[in-house]
């Protein structure tokens, strides 16, 4: 029997008798399980109880006296038809809401996962041991995304697929499809009245839309290394469908390329008699549908489950989405370099390597996804992946960042051969771009230069960066900020350290030149690294006081006035 409880004004209250329907669901890409309930609430009908549940209420559900859900009410809606609907999520919801910052070097995926969970105060029940060391720089990412990024790298090396879920209030990281359900999905031989099966209805779909049967492998200089093919019979039947892969340090390219090969997708959506214990996302289940040879006696894998109890009729059903292959909610990142002179330089290397992974992607006018890019859509997609939110068009991107000459170009800079086209500089006089209709993303020699823009600035040049920052050894403090400009009336354009004033510098009478702070939470400026290169008046004799340089000219003066004085969180880096 299903029962629902909550904490109501400090007391434990069972509300099952008020419920009309109860639904618990989960999916591969939604780390938290969801509880949706419709219950009676007397808006106009005074004969119906008014149990006023609201956001933050603790709710739990038992099935045959075993707890199957515990979480917090996140959203509720009251309607004039005398119903209250609410949605609750289990505690994995917080793994998508929190943010963490770490720098892992040579740390196994499981140890890094435990460190992340410890940071946010979440317990673990089981974390799959990999023994594989990961180098990963995390800045302001959700714990879930960070964990799945690391296990995605493990998957590339081992082929195993992983799934993160919550058991009660403890995290589980397990192999996807590691357990097979005891109950087979099959139709009844003489209808549901003759209960030798459990299948009520189903929808079978197969598609070659995501098929990959050839992978060409390139090195970092765009030289072809190898070609990995699927079985020739697959290519003969479906035609050649190719992707490109740029070799990554520390990974066997043949292993990765073979994992990129992908056959037909076979999906079954089915409705069966309810079974919460067996039919759960991440499990395998044997399917016996006699009318379709491919699934007449085959193990498929549950990627979505939804269990519904209709309290009025007493019926309980489960709706499942099944996949022929084991899958994973993969999260991509580029590994950081242990030899990187600054975190922003690491960002640049990652951006360039990530851009190369799209070599061969077709040009599509107006395209902004890996299905097809135009020039600015490609640049926007690549930079947005690393948290640099560029605008959509070439005409807007040409005003982003700071101006650089052709002689000053560094990898990761934007190159505009004209006002209507944008490229990414990759070094050695070459750019990567999405050229025009009929061609694909490729690397070519530069053929013109109208303008260059630097989006990712180097912290060694005192510029502010919102990229990844290692805060593991930083000192956190509250900092009082003011803002100044390089107008002549404010002291000219040279700092007290003798360097030309530029954005990313700050003034202090306490800290020595070169002292760096990562400052977050400035209302009106991006988070970033600011370097002490200037002195100020007696107001700046405090260790909790900095003056931030914001530019030169009338617009900057207005900006400084608008920013005013603020108190924010700062991390002293050195």
Automatic annotation (TrEMBL):
The keyword Magnesium does not apply. The keyword Methyltransferase does not apply. InterPro entries: NLP_P60_dom, Papain-like_cys_pep_sf, Peptidase_C40, YqbQ/XkdQ. One of its GO terms (biological process) is proteolysis. Residues 345-461 form the NlpC/P60 domain. Belongs to the peptidase C40 family. This is Cell wall-associated hydrolase.
């Amino acid at each position: 029997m299903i029962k629902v409880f909550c904490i109501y004004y400090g007391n434990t209250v069972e509300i099952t008798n008020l419920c009309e329907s109860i639904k618990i669901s989960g999916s591969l890409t939604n780390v938290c399980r969801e509880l949706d309930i419709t219950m009676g609430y007397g808006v106009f009908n005074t004969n119906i109880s008014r149990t006023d549940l609201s956001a933050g209420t603790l709710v739990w559900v038992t099935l045959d006296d075993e707890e199957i859900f515990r979480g917090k009410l996140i959203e509720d809606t009251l309607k004039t038809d005398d119903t209250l609907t609410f949605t609750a999520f289990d505690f994995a919801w917080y793994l998508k809401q929190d943010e963490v910052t770490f720098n892992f070097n040579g740390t196994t995926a499981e140890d890094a996962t435990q460190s992340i969970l410890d940071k946010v105060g979440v317990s673990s029940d089981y974390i799959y041991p990999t023994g594989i060391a990961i180098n990963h720089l995390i800045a302001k990412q959700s714990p879930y995304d960070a964990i799945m990024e690391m296990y995605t790298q493990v998957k590339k090396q081992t082929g195993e697929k992983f799934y993160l879920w919550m058991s009660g209030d403890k995290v589980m990281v397990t192999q996807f499809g590691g357990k097979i359900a005891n109950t087979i999905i099959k139709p009844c031989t003489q209808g549901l009245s003759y209960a030798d099966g459990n299948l009520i209805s189903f929808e079978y779909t197969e598609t070659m839309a995501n098929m990959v049967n050839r992978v060409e492998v390139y090195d970092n200089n765009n030289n072809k290394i190898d070609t990995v093919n699927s079985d020739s019979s697959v290519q003969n039947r479906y035609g050649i469908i190719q992707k490109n892969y740029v070799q990554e340090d520390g990974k066997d390219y043949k292993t990765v390329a073979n994992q990129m090969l992908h056959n037909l997708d076979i999906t079954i959506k089915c409705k069966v008699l309810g079974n919460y214990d067996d039919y759960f996302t991440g499990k395998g289940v044997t399917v016996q549908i006699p009318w379709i040879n491919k699934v007449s006696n085959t193990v498929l894998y549950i990627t979505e489950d939804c269990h519904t109890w209709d309290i009025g009729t007493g019926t309980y059903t489960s709706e499942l989405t099944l996949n022929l292959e084991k899958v994973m909610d993969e999260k991509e990142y580029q590994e950081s370099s242990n030899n990187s002179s600054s975190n922003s330089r690491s960002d640049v290397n990652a951006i360039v390597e990530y851009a190369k992974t799209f070599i061969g992607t077709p040009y599509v006018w107006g395209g902004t996804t890996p299905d097809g890019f135009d020039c600015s859509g490609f640049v926007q997609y690549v930079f947005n992946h690393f948290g640099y939110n560029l605008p959509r068009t070439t005409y807007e991107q040409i005003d982003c960042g700071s101006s650089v000459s052709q002689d000053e170009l560094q990898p990761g800079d934007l190159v505009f051969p004209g006002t209507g086209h944008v490229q990414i500089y990759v070094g050695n006089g070459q750019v990567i771009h999405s050229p025009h209709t009929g061609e694909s993303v490729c690397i070519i020699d530069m053929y013109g230069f109208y303008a260059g823009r630097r989006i990712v600035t180097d912290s060694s040049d005192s510029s502010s960066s919102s990229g990844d920052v290692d805060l593991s050894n930083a000192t956190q403090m509250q900092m009082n900020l003011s803002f100044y400009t390089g107008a002549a009336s404010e002291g000219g354009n040279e700092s007290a350290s003798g360097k030309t004033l530029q954005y990313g510098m700050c003034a202090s009478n306490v800290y020595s030149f070169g002292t760096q702070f990562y400052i977050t939470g400035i209302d009106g400026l991006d988070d970033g690294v600011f370097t002490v290169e200037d002195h100020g008046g007696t107001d700046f004799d405090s260790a909790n006081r900095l003056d931030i340089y914001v530019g030169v000219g009338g617009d900057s003066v207005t900006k400084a006035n608008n920013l005013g004085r603020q108190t924010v969180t700062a991390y002293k880096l050195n």
